[in-house]
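Complex 417.
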Amino acid sequence: MKEAEEKPVKAGGRLCCICNKRRAALKRPKTLEQICRECFYEVFEEEIHHVIVENQLFKPGERIAIGASGGKDSTVLACVLSELNRRHNYGLDLFLLSVDEGITGYRDDSLETVKRNEIQYGLRLKIVSYKDLYGWTMDEIVKTIGLKNNCTFCGVFRRQALDRGAALLKVDKLATGHNADDIAETVLLNILRGDIARLSRCTSIITGEDGPIPRCKPFKYTYEKEIMFTYAYFKRLDYFSTECIYSPNAYRGFARGFIKDLERIRPRAILDIIQSGENFRISTSTKMPEQGTCERCGYISSQKWCKACVLLEGLNRGLPKLGIGRSRGLNNDSPMRRLSFCELQGPSLNAHCNGEVMEVIASPSLLEGERKEAQEQLHTVLCDDGDLALERQIVGIEVPNPRPPRGHVGSERSEKP
Ligand code: SF4
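Predicted structure with iron/sulfur cluster bound:
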């Protein structure tokens, strides 16, 4: 995402409040302390060291992949982890792992930055691409689906691509550059979307311990301003700061703007939102998804097919909307076989199964032509199960005329790059 060029806030002519010798060069965004550069580098790096030790993020001898996009967070992470690994003898074998989504004019340029980081920090680099893994580049996907929902495809594919790259590198863990601002933003987004499953795990500093490759966030308590406008700026690190050409992300952008406004009034707000997220207790009656594996590719999934396989199937069949939103899409094994009827409910086409209503295709506004397409998609999904009786049942469905929309906003999901 593009960042406004901003310089660290100068601290005037005072002495550094830590060493009391050198002139203060900046006011820390997180604590508002006035300190010199040397003391800032030290407290910044040692705070991250403290987070790593306190949360036991790494064990000696582990192989760790750093998710590297060429952006400010992952570049600072590569720089700081290399330094701490040397200084505190972590005994880690560090790698850079990048994903090439196939976005011309954006990712190709940022990967050049990662290649320079490979030399600058002496870390081996592995690049995995969407084209190799899925047969599609983001350029091709956007040509097919347009600029709506593109980040859903990209986010789902990236998550899996990183796991696949990590497996190729045979690493024990993946460290990502998610910072405190990102996590606060995600807490807020999950509340706004009512996504309890994600809310319960988005503040965890280590996730996926029951999955193929655990992930950790050493910057969980590190402010974006300190990473970019202070550390990266003073150290003159080589990072890439251009916005993705396909970035709409209006909803996430709103949450981000709101958090930045709060931070201006009260810098601690970011940490307080994270703490609130940590302290949420999920009601025992809330049904959480059960984790299994995708029948098609073997990746972890709470459904019959993982989200990436559903999205890919839609793309390959020329039905790219399959799997968008809160869709069961192709994951319809037993409930769909008991489907009784489907109907247009406001802007969505709903399937009714044994009293449970499942939103099959969520869209902000299903227009006349889209209703037909939606019905065909549902038809295709159901026919794929080879249930001919069901096929006859569905073909005979009369879709009522749409009622006026009731302000339903569908199930927009955009992923942070
Ligand atoms: Fe992918 Fe991020 Fe670009 Fe969306 S904004 S297409 S998630 S890189």
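Residues 101, 138, 150-151, 154-155, 244, 246-247, 415, 417 surround iron/sulfur cluster (CB under 6 Å).
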